[in-house]
TrEMBL record:
The keyword Glycoprotein applies. It comes from Noctiluca scintillans. The keyword Chaperone does not apply. InterPro entries: PLipase_C/P1_nuclease_dom_sf, S1/P1nuclease. One of its GO terms (biological process) is DNA catabolic process. Keywords: Disulfide bond, Endonuclease, Glycoprotein, Hydrolase, Metal-binding, Nuclease. Pfam families: S1-P1_nuclease. This is Uncharacterized protein. Belongs to the nuclease type I family. One of its GO terms (molecular function) is hydrolase activity, acting on ester bonds. It comes from the Eukaryota.
Amino acid sequence: SSVDECSSARHVSMIKFAFLVGHCAAWGRVGHERINRVAQSLLVGSQRDRIRHLLHSDVIDIAHWEDLTSSQYPPSKDLHWHQQEPEWTCASQLGNKGHIKCDDHSAEQKSLYCGLAYFFEEFASKAMLQEFPALEEPINTPKKLDVLIEPDLPESSDLRWLVTLMGDLHQPLHWLRQRAYGKEVNVSYRGEAMTLLELWETHIPRRLPVIASPDAMRVDYEARSTAWVQKVPTELFRDWAKEVAAIVCEQIYPAMEVNHADGTRSIADPFVVDEALYQRWLQLANTVLELGGQRIAFVLVDILTHKKHKKHHMEGRGIHHSTRWRSCFMKNVLLSFILVPSILALLMKHRRMGGPSLLKLAGVRLKG
């Protein structure tokens, strides 16, 4: 029957995916170490100590987490990749026409986006989340992840997972299963043969330039985080996923594809990566990794605030997240720029027209 055929096709697809992820890696350890190093450099004062306490290690030292968990419990490999049914293409957009939620349609619950949402909400304060505007599109965060080695992980493991998956979020090829996330694309660079996935996962991260100075990195971080603080991280994950996925369709595959007269596209086998393209991709990877490190730092600091809020809430005290305060403050500043000059102009016009002094009127009123 057609139902049996669909079930069989889905089963074959799942077997194929299991084979692929079993032979793929996310950002190699070098890539994860770099992105984590950026994140750690942005943690200041007690933030670094408090995160070290939660992780039971420094952020830099968990670059091996994927290798460790994948060897201990292979089903957990699914979490490092985006999966949806049916799979998206560059023509159809990530998720369901750009909409992503954990509904096993636009994002499977055992895949990258839903894993990010799950591990963040393990730390989130419900009271703090309520301070944000209601989401226009629900996330449907899974209540549990069946691909984990055990249902209730220690807090340090939850946070290690979150940091690692945020690194994977910033690997563009992790979002598009087409061509097996780049594993089915053979490339050659300077005579060295590899897959496109290997080029991005291991080759490029080993040739990145020196990380920018902490001061320069902090300038970028401060400028960007003012926008991030206005949204809950689970919504940011969705925005960031769309942004990184777009890189595959705009800056990776278009540079390799040949358009044919019949409307089809193909990639040479092997595709020779010339020096100009390699340098463009090198700079692109550097930008994405540094941005990912900044975002990890932001989410880690946000988690510290959530934990503090939870603690105070249990003690009967409360602290307020800065999001609304900043938003209201900025609104008041903007209003002051408009209202104060207008009021002063009216007062000056009133005086020029010979009207009585408002201060004198106020004095008479006070005496009366």
